[in-house]
Amino acid sequence: MQTSFPPSAMAPECRNGSRPEENFAQLIAHAERPTFSVEFFPPRDDAAAEALHRSIEQLEPMRPDFVSVTYGANGSKRDRTLNAVRDIVASTELRVVGHLTCTAQSTAQLEQVVDAYGEMGVDHILAIRGDMPGGPLVPWEPHPQGLRNATELVQLVKARGKFCVGVAAFPDIHPGSTPEDDVAALLAKQAAGAEFAVTQLFFRPDGYRSLLARMREAGCMLPVLAGMMPVTTIRQLDKFAELSGAPIPEPMRERLLAVAGDPDQVRATGADICAELGCSLLDLGAPGLHFFTQNRSVATREILSRLLAPAR
Ligand SMILES: Cc1cc2nc3c(=O)[nH]c(=O)nc-3n(C[C@H](O)[C@H](O)[C@H](O)COP(=O)(O)OP(=O)(O)OC[C@H]3O[C@@H](n4cnc5c(N)ncnc54)[C@H](O)[C@@H]3O)c2cc1C
């Protein structure tokens, strides 16, 4: 695996302008370059839909290896996700990964969503549990006719059709779990048929290194894409710590606070930090970087341009 970051635009499998035939797991098994993927959330109104379209238009020429669309934790907004995925499938040549959670939905409802993905030609699903309203620390309760965890969701999806399934991983340990339980869950999800993992947002390369070491020692060989999101405003510092489940490293906080008076500098510093983290992760052997875009393309494009710069 080379650690430099050639753009996916260089990938021969993407040059002919049609959706790739091999699935993402097959691609990652032989890719001699890191992959790059982006995540969107479903828009809630026309203006947000317009913004999402613009972002996709700006990112599609960079040929991400896939784009994914998040799913409301309790399924209540599932039509928004399905509509957004349908739109992307219809208007682009991109490989699309539909997210699916099993919180507050019966098995029958979950099967309907999997079938809906299949009918629109989406054959990649990120199978995650979802959280209770109130967040990941609120004790999780299964639906009375539903599933108990993401492992069972992977099984359900695999039983429903020929889907390539991804799952969640946590370099900073899931807030309701332990390092051992996290790896046991990943091992179970691999046994259930998952073929790749994508991490939660994190900022310490050591967290990724140690997750990978624990996984490999336990026999879990899933490729783990590193989830990345740059800090673009000072207000996000605490928000991101909450999301990642770990404090922001002090040197990173200090670098951002040093330019707090200048929003452009905050944004540029956030992109620098994210690009540096990306480089470290690729050097550690991360097979790809996955960008949580918040439906905007600017930060992702800025970071990619830094990663592509010759003087790394
Ligand atoms: C990349 C990424 C994308 C995400 N996208 C979304 C999204 O679109 N929508 C959304 O609502 N949330 C999303 N989330 C958040 C996710 O729903 C939460 O982090 C949730 O708290 C955990 O999900 P999980 O799939 O890791 O759960 P699980 O893998 O089910 O783990 C939850 C608990 O169940 C246990 N467990 C798992 N399998 C087993 C088993 N076989 N036997 C016994 N115990 C088991 C685990 O140890 C753990 O304690 C995403 C997270 C990531 C990292």
Radius of gyration: 19 Å
What letter string, H or E per element, gives the SSE order?
HEHEHEHEHEHEHEHHHEH
Number of strands: 8
Q: Specify the overall morphology.
A: globular
What's the overall average pLDDT, rounded?
91
Bound molecules: flavin-adenine dinucleotide
How many strands, what sense, and barrel or not for the largest sheet? 8 strands, parallel, barrel
Q: Roughly what percent helix? A: 40-55%
Which strand order spans the largest sheet, edge to edge or round the barrel? Answer: 1-2-3-4-5-6-7-8
CATH architecture label name: Alpha-Beta Barrel
The count of domains is 1
SS field, number of helical segments: 11
The secondary-structure class comes to alpha/beta
> Which fold name fills CATH's third level, the topology?
TIM Barrel
The CATH class designation is: Alpha Beta
In brief:
With 312 residues, the protein is α/β, with parallel strands linked by helices. The chain contains eleven helices and eight strands. Flavin-adenine dinucleotide binds next to β3, β4, α5, α6 and β6.
Task: Write up this protein.
This protein is about 45% helix and about 15% strand. It has a single domain, classed as Alpha-Beta Barrel (TIM Barrel), CATH 3.20.20.220. Helix 6 (about 180-190) packs across helix 7 and helix 10 crosses helix 11 (about 300-310). By secondary structure, it is an alpha/beta fold. The model is unreliable at about 10-15 (pLDDT under 50). Strands 1-2-3-4-5-6-7-8 form an eight-stranded parallel β-barrel, surrounded by six helices. The structure holds flavin-adenine dinucleotide. Flavin-adenine dinucleotide (FAD) binds near residues 70, 130, 177 and 188. Flavin-adenine dinucleotide (FAD) binds near residues 99 and 177.
